[in-house]
Amino acid sequence: MTLSGTRQENVYLAIQAVQKEERVSVKLLCQIAGIPRSSYYKWLNRKPSSREQENHRLTHAMISLYKKVDGIFGYRQLTLHLRQQTEQQINHKRIYRLMKLKGIQSVIRRKRKKYVRSTPQQVTENLLNREFYAKAPNEKWVTDVTEFKYGNGQKAYLSAILDLHDNTIVSYVLGHSNNNRLVFQTVKSALQAAPNSTPMLHSDRGFQYTSVKFKKMFYGKITQSMSRVGRCIDNGPMESFWGTLKCEKYYLRKYKSFEQLKKDIDAYIYFYNHERLQAKLNGLSPMEFRTKAA
């Protein structure tokens, strides 16, 4: 069925529904819709084509999945998940058209991060140099801290480390203060999870990463790399994750307490690691891709 044909079908379905519920005559409804009665009765008595039947099944599965994730998926994510569910090569343009016809779209919205300059004590070169690819797990990590608000203007801070091999969030800590303890605990947890690794850790020039204490604590355990001043794109994958987390979870509701915020962040990071499929990971979730590599 063509796109225009599918739209016409929506008109027929509306006439059918109103006629059954309101007992309005088909003649009047067809006049209001501007279509011949013969066309409506032809549609009513037709046998749906295989393409129509497939579109109906896809639409049902699409809406079910869309509701399950509270509307955060756009056509790309819906396509990935529907491909996995149906084990078919579904074209993303088809899902985009079906979404348009059903009047649904991703509820996420983007916000730009403000860059805050710091006065570094010790800095290192940008060794990562935007080579956002790693051959194996725990080879290259990127990290950052981002801010959230809850209650009456209270602030919380999330520190996280992302593995460039599979985009897995290997460790994260949510705290009330943006301090050394927050960052140090994040790095410690990541190293504990990968005890025999000596990864490159790329960050911005925030005060925690450039402090003498940080360097002493993790000397010999990691190789530091830092973004250039004012170049957020040097830490692009981490910035991308913050945007995804905030758009798909944080911006969708108001948080009254730290506990509410933490519960949603815990749930989302589990969802991101284990369930959210990524095209660049061959349609797998980060943990699925990581497990295959192992």
UniProtKB/TrEMBL annotation:
Would you say which domain of life the source belongs to?
A: Bacteria
Tell me one Pfam family matched here: rve
Q: Which residues form the Integrase catalytic domain?
A: 133-294
**What does this protein do, in the record's words?**
Involved in the transposition of the insertion sequence.
What protein am I looking at?
IS3 family transposase ISEnfa5
Report the source organism. Answer: Paenibacillus allorhizosphaerae
Taxonomy, top ranks, is:
Bacteria, Bacillati, Bacillota, Bacilli, Bacillales
